Amino acid sequence: MTAISGKVVAITGASSGIGEATARLLAERGAAVVLGARRTERLDELAQDIRDRGGRAIACATDVARPEDLERLVDRAVAEFGRLDVLVSNAGIAKIGPMADLDVEGWSAMIDVNLRGVLHGIAAALPVFRRQGRGHLVTTVSTSGLKIVPTQAVYAATKNAVRTFLEGLRQESTDGVLRTTAVSPGFVRTELTDSMDNAHVREQIRRTMDELAIAPEAVARAIAFAIEQPHDVEIGEITIRPTVQG
Ligand SMILES: NC(=O)c1ccc[n+]([C@@H]2O[C@H](COP(=O)([O-])OP(=O)(O)OC[C@H]3O[C@@H](n4cnc5c(N)ncnc54)[C@H](OP(=O)(O)O)[C@@H]3O)[C@@H](O)[C@H]2O)c1
To answer: What is the mean pLDDT of residues 5-15?
Structure first.
């Protein structure tokens, strides 16, 4: 038995990278996981693989830009497993490039997924957490918001907006019902570069990832650490980056 055993955890962006690694680790440690993302084939395969290994998992098609999809994800968790203990709002895209590219579409897409997507999750999960008397919101933000570098301005802004409203929510939620955790990874070896449209920037980031990125399992362990604390202990912020990252 672990402190994670028996918890019900919904994870957005569970079809690859950090979300997938988190789903696998939490399921291994006895959580029931509800997997959300748009690539349903990958979700179905992952859910099946977790069940084949003796875990509990279901897949639920989710586009975080659509508030009704987050409601469905939360409803599925409650319908299948009786409650929702944790929502890991992890889905994200990185349409990075110099602001001078004026990639208005990419900026909007990042706002829709990285920012609105997390708000939609909060709107869906908070009533359930309040009804249950407890709940935990975990989000994947980024070290991009801690050290602002060229090409990542708008991406970093979406992550820092999340950091800001999570702190506000925390201040408004000191009655002991809600825990909030913002996890800031540095370079992690995932498929995030696939969402980058600027070929030059994408290649640059891929090279850096090959050179120094850490495995997504490292971030999964950090998320598990926040979840496994007793409910009166809130891990507010975790920064986890390659030791060699500047
Ligand atoms: N990798 C890094 O170096 C790094 C560093 C700091 C922070 N992060 C953050 O970590 C989080 C996870 O990214 P990752 O690195 O694991 O990259 P990834 O492998 O590309 O995973 C991103 C996940 O987000 C999902 N997603 C994208 N748009 C979505 C939408 N509209 N609705 C639902 N799901 C959506 C993708 O699934 P579908 O395409 O199937 O929908 C995928 O499962 C992101 O928030 C990212 O910003 C990553």
So the answer is: 98
